[in-house]
Specification:
about 450 residues; mainly alpha; globular; binds 4-fluoro-L-phenylalanine
């Protein structure tokens, strides 16, 4: 049988739209609503946004195409897919490193993702209890400081979120959650629009927009470029095999190019909307834009506390954010769980328990990096900052380079062309040059620049 005619033993999406929804569900998460705004704030605003959007367009979309392409051709888990494709292209099995590093990155990311997922969970209850009614910026900031100052409280919520994630992973993803997401994600989108609407009434909307969209190139530095690129990989879930697994279920005749563009566009729009909702409130309440990971938890409650129906909207917003985080967290651990099942013959439940326990333990480092261990730094970074830096800014971009090199240089052009189903020759040539030259060179330059070599 022709290799491109095979199907994954794990199944196939029923249509192109199911795939788009599922991949968007995995891509849209805390990265868009929690991380994008605070990184933007820390890196001076508009210039960061601009580099981010350029990275999504020139690296994100071509690399997403490459990753889906490898997945659809390999039709297996990332490690096994790379093994199959290395055989097909007669190259060394070392390329499996893409699968290994991605599997490890997923676990490392989930360890801290779960901690922030826990914050979201806690904020559902705080909002519903009316903690924020009539809240000033000061009250929201104080509430947050007290909250993260308690190692025991964060321990509890991290544990709760991990239970939620592993519960679904153990039971299988299909069915309930996937169906629910089809309603909940559009609702999240509408609520974000509503928040932007609220921000328009703060009197600082213009200032927020200027901060986000009027580029100030003096603010660009090697590290801010690296953060913007890392965030593009993180937000689109690239460079770690998740998209490869999702790609392995893609029907044969789906256009990979247009699908990737839709996913990247949806992901970016959500991030930008989050920024537009948050920064006017930041300025209205005199909060510091660079105040870090607590940014949305210090700003959005002010909006909810002061708008009509805020109690309901606030609780609903954090519920939806929780769901968005949940769909992403499941995809983060899927490579490890499937690998344990394949290699050790474990049941899905056992594999979920083992991966869950290890990831949860690792997450404790992040939990306490916000309080008891806040003074403990490595190269000037807390445990959380270090994990985030190593995964988003190093492992994902490096994984991305390897994927680009493999798809661009090792696979035969006729195979990639057939797999991508691009009929227009010029479009194909553009893609091929992007993955062969531009993506690897650009990522490499940004990496060298950030460590001060270039
Ligand atoms: N893209 C997710 C977000 O923006 O929240 C995070 C993520 C999920 C990263 C899955 C990587 C991944 F494989």
């Amino acid at each position: 049988m022709n290799i491109s005619d095979r199907q994954s033993i794990h199944g196939q999406w029923s249509s192109r739209w199911t795939f788009i929804l599922a991949a968007t569900g995995a891509a849209v998460g805390l990265g868009n609503i929690w991380k994008f705004p605070y990184l933007t704030g820390q890196n001076g605003g508009s210039a960061f946004v601009l580099i981010y959007v350029v990275c999504v367009a020139t690296l994100g979309i071509p690399l997403m195409m490459a990753e889906i392409l490898l997945g659809r051709r390999g039709r297996s888990t990332p490690i096994r897919t790379m093994q199959i494709l290395a055989e097909e292209t007669n190259t060394t099995q070392w390329w499996q490193i893409i699968g290994w590093s991605g599997t490890l990155a997923g676990m490392l990311i989930l360890s801290y993702y779960s901690v922030i997922g826990g914050w979201t969970l806690a904020y559902i209850f705080k909002s519903a209890a009316g903690t924020f009614s009539g809240a000033s910026g000061q009250l929201a900031t104080d509430t947050f400081s007290i909250f993260i100052g308690s190692g025991t409280t964060l321990f509890f919520w991290h544990t709760a979120f991990m239970f939620l994630t592993m519960g679904v992973v153990a039971g299988g993803v299909q069915g309930g959650l996937e169906k629910a997401v089809q309603i909940l994600m559009p609702t999240l989108f509408i609520l974000l629009l509503l928040m932007v609407g609220y921000s328009m009434t703060t009197g600082f909307f213009g200032k927020g927009l200027t901060f986000l969209f009027t580029p100030d190139f003096s603010k660009i530095s090697g590290t801010s470029m690296l953060s913007a690129m890392g965030q593009a990989f993180f937000s689109l879930s690239l460079g770690m095999g998740t998209i490869m697994i999702y790609g392995s279920y893609v029907p044969k005749d789906t256009s990979i190019a247009s699908t990737s563009i839709i996913i990247a566009l949806a992901d970016t729009v959500v991030a930008l909307l989050a920024g537009m909702a948050i920064f006017p409130i930041v300025f209205a309440t005199n909060l510091e834009p660079g105040s870090g990971p607590g940014l949305i938890f210090q700003t959005l409650p002010v909006a909810f506390g002061n708008m009509t129906g805020g109690l309901a909207f606030g609780s609903l917003f954090f519920i939806l954010l929780l769901v968005a985080a949940w769909t992403s967290s499941i995809s983060l651990i899927e490579p490890l769980v499937t690998w344990l099942i394949e290699n050790f013959g474990l049941t899905r439940i056992k594999a979920a328990i083992y991966s869950g326990v290890v990831t949860w333990l690792l997450g404790l480092g992040t939990v306490w990096s916000f309080n008891w261990w806040a003074g403990l730094t490595f190269f000037g970074l807390t445990f959380f900052d270090l994990l985030d830096f190593v995964t988003s800014n190093l492992m994902l971009p490096l994984g991305g380079i390897l994927i680009a090199l493999f798809a661009g240089w090792l696979m035969k052009a006729e195979n990639t062309k057939a797999e991508l189903r691009i009929t227009n020759h010029t479009t194909y040539v553009i893609w091929r040059n992007l993955v062969r030259y531009i993506a690897p060179v650009a990522v490499f330059i940004v990496l060298l620049n950030a460590v001060g070599i270039l």
